[in-house]
């Protein structure tokens, strides 16, 4: 039976026009004429029997269904491109593992260790893609995710790696020669905030029994990597996972002014679909990852490890 799928050319024209909110800019991006873009989108709207754009003089604006369709088409085209690139890069005997990862965890912990995995298993290529939030495996190309434990992962297999341990860190220059602070002194400095963890400083101060300041004021950032960089440049004190700042602590770029960690707010885990048996490639990776997590948990940088 013939599939109800529009042409790739039409979908690419629609995605570009929706992204730029302009037929002329879409034409420039795809090296086509504006008339060609207009014809492709008109044909797509006829195929769908839907209006995807409102045309107002020389401007175009997505309809409500156009906005929803754009989100799906963009993801589908991205997935198709990734799959195509993987096929083009394939070498005989090569095995590919697609992983979704938390961005800062990947750059600060996972990637530095992957060279060891590649040495042990040179036939396996590990591709990493950023996913900050849980997702449905059925709607993705991923074999597994290295992520936080979360109720949204219900129905999937989860293997605990280790608990998060948060510590306050700052640049030595911020302290003007001091190497340690009391809780009252620390509370006087700017506190760097993570947008999705707005209560973490409040929780830390509550653990210390300190109620003397507003813990949610201070510069805000999306990623821990941004907060760490801001701390390195003296913009304030950051509360970050200790494993993310191991290099900076060793080099002296950052120090811990008050070593009172909080643990257990988040747990790192590897997640994969439970309804299907893990492939031999994924099993090898999970076994290696669990061993690396055990070494992290018992290493000196983790200090107390998992409680």
How would you portray this structure in words?
With 307 residues, the chain is α/β, with parallel strands linked by helices. The chain folds into 3 domains: 8-88, Winged helix-like DNA-binding domain superfamily/Winged helix DNA-binding domain (Arc Repressor Mutant, subunit A); 91-163 and 266-298, Periplasmic binding protein-like II (D-Maltodextrin-Binding Protein, domain 2); 164-263, Periplasmic binding protein-like II (D-Maltodextrin-Binding Protein, domain 2, 3-Layer(aba) Sandwich), CATH 3.40.190. 41% of the residues lie in helices and 20% in strands. It is built from 10 helices and 10 strands. It has helices spanning 8-20, 23-30, 34-48, 64-89, 103-120, 183-186, 200-208, 224-232, 246-251, 280-298; strands at 53-56, 59-62, 95-101, 124-130, 144-148, 156-169, 193-194, 220-221, 238-241, 262-273. Strands 4-3-5-10-6-9 form a 6-stranded mixed beta sheet, with helices on both faces. It has a two-stranded antiparallel sheet with strand order 1-2. It is globular.
